Amino acid sequence: MKPSHIDEKGRARMVDVSAKAESEREAKAYGKVTLSREAYAAIKSGDGPKGDILTVAKIAGIMASKKTSEIVPLCHPLAISAIDIRFEYRDRQRAIEVFSSVRCRARTGVEMEALAAVMLASLTIYDMCKALDKSIQLGPFYLLEKSGGKSGGFRRQKAK
Q1: Which of 9, 58, 72, 103 is 20 to 30 A distant from 112 in Cα terms?
Q2: Beta bridge partners of residue 101, listed in sequence order
């Protein structure tokens, strides 16, 4: 199977989805931010150097999801119906896990929008904490699951 964003001559192209039927689409993605003890404690206590870090990160993730087609060159613009971003603390790892869920009714999926959401939310955490910790580690980032469309569903298998 050849990549869908490459034409018969090997040139980049935007996929023509005009003949595809609209369907309900959903994608969920994951990201992780690992921090120093000081930065992790500041976020968890709400004492970040630039204020309420996770609220700002959530807004950044929502904005990124809505603007994905403007920053990923061959991505279709979509009318997103819902975006949710949530965070979970992992004390032993000094990490914050970032989860996104994006839904729409469209001719193409929302995987890129879900991934953009977790990546930009994570990058915002980095930006807001870099004064405390320049060694913040971002990632991994990956698609957890998707539903809808011709290719059907996908669910990432848990590592064994």
Answers
A1: 9
A2: 28, 84
Q: Binning pLDDT at 50, 70 and 90, where does residue 65 land?
A: very high
Placement of tokens 């700002």 in the chain: 56
- The answer to whether residue 16 is catalytic is no
Does the residue 49 lie in any domain? yes
CB 37 within 8 Å of CB 100: no
Q: Are 56 and 124 in contact (CB under 8 A)?
A: yes
Residue 30's pLDDT is what?
A: 98
User: The CATH number of the domain where 105 resides is what?
Assistant: 3.30.70.640
Model pLDDT, residue 55: 95
Count of other CB atoms within 10 angstroms of residue 146: 22
Please state the domain count of the chain: 1
Distances (CA, A) of 139 to 11, 107, 123: 30, 30, 10
Amino acid letter, 139: G
64 within domain boundaries: yes
Q: Which residue among the candidates 7, 52, 84, 127 is catalytic per the annotation?
A: 127
Q: At 120, which amino acid appears?
A: L
In which domain, by residue range, is 72 found? 23-146
